[in-house]
Amino acid sequence: MIFQCAKRRAAGRFLSGIAAAVLVALVAAAGLQTAWAGQPGKADDAVSDRDFYKWLDGLRIEAKKAGISEKTLDAALGDIAPIRRVVELDRRQPEFTRSFRSYLSRRVTRERIYRGRALLEKHRNLLENIYDEYGVAPRYLIAFWGLETHFGAHMGGFQAVEALATLAYDRRRADFFRAELIHALKIIDQGHVHPQDMTGSWAGAMGHMQFMPSTFNHYATDYTGNGRKDIWGSLPDAFASAANFLSRIGWQPDQNWGRQVRLPKDFDLSLASLDTKKSVEEWKDLGVQAADGTALTETETQGSVVLPQGESGPAFLVFDNFRAIMRWNRSVNYAISVGHLADRIVGLPPVFFGPDAADETLSRNQIKEIQQNLNRLGFDAGPADGVAGPRTRAAIRAFQQNHDLAADGYPSAKLLERLRAQ
Questions:
Q1: pTM (2 decimals)?
Q2: pLDDT for res 91
Q3: Domain containing 370 — which CATH number?
């Protein structure tokens, strides 16, 4: 997302009509930072009901200070109750972490490519006009649209204000969601959408492109000129808002996102990192070639080599537009998927994985064990949360370098076995 809360949205997009949740006492013994339990439905416990509405009174005071009218507050907050399903989805963590190969194959599908091509042609005039104004090529907007909401088919069925209030009252990420709730109320107060029509994912991501309310307030555009920024019902507004966001965070109109490349056998894998930027000419001097073995072009462009599936998987040389995609969603896998889907829509070839590319799946517990072992051995992997983020990958790379291993920074079953033996 555009920072869209831990991708997270997939389950919420397919769930609609969820009733509001029962509000009960904090389950302290379970160690959960939440005040939710019971069955779906409006709160009927007097104490917990009173706690939520007391909290909501404080939220109303803050919203008034932010300039939001009483009329908007009554319309948006007058009949809300917390949604237990929202908290369940926020707590849910996938048991397994998919490999890049599996991730890509589930997102850049034949159906999505063909559908994207058809929609590119259908909306070409609009998209070309937006390109002229914002500099974001049509194929990228179609790719974002396809990955975020399957071209508008799955925009989420939760009431955004009610979902955000649930998460703002819940204490796990209260400050973030409280701020997003205030942003959502401002959107309603400005007349862009009626509270009942402000629908989205369980985490509050909204519309065709799944903007969070704060992103809407910073970047949404009234492209049609009707006085409303409608990212739910107006494709011109949705496309232009996405293009405006990308252009304002550094999108380069004359650049691609990146490309698959071929690395030489003696390539120093410690250079495969977004922290290392070199010109294409410098990468050529190090033996990096295009995926088909031909010489690289665009010699002055600065780029980085990334290995989303470690040394045995494909390599990519990525440019500044790749970094812009990661401002939308801070995932290397997601960013490559957007770029690759955009490429496939205009007829470029699929990623070549090669016969040696592993496709193993690690569980979150296995990644936690990798993190715990790295920390035990003095390599700072951060909290053992089962998510192999930049800090964990840096610790893996440091361990690999210390033990004369291929320093690809990739969590694997082979790495886990080596750590267990230390």
A1: 0.86
A2: 86
A3: 1.10.101
Question: Which burial class, exposed, middle or buried, applies to 303 when counting CB atoms under 10 A from its CB (0-12, 13-18, 19+)?
Answer: buried
Overall size of the chain counted in residues: 422
Interatomic CA distance for residues 337 and 314, integer angstroms: 13
Domain count, the chain: 2
* 325 contacts 131 by C-beta, under 8 angstroms: no
Q: Does any domain span residue 298?
A: no
The range of the structural domain enclosing residue 380 comes to: 362-420
90 token code pair: 């926020």
Give mean pLDDT in consecutive 10-residue pieces for the chain, a chain of 422 residues.
41 35 32 38 45 93 97 95 92 81 94 98 98 98 98 97 96 94 98 97 97 98 98 98 97 95 95 94 96 87 94 94 96 96 97 76 93 98 92 96 94 95 94
CA distance 72 to 280: 53
Read off the CATH number of the domain in which 83 is found.
1.10.8.350
Token pair for residue 229?
Answer: 């920024």
Round to the nearest angstrom and report the end-to-end CA distance of the chain: 38
Nearest Cα neighbor of 289 from 269, 260, 256 is: 260
How far apart, in whole angstroms, are the C-alpha atoms of residue 139 and residue 123? Answer: 11
In the listed set 232, 252, 281, which residue is the last one of a domain according to the structure?
232
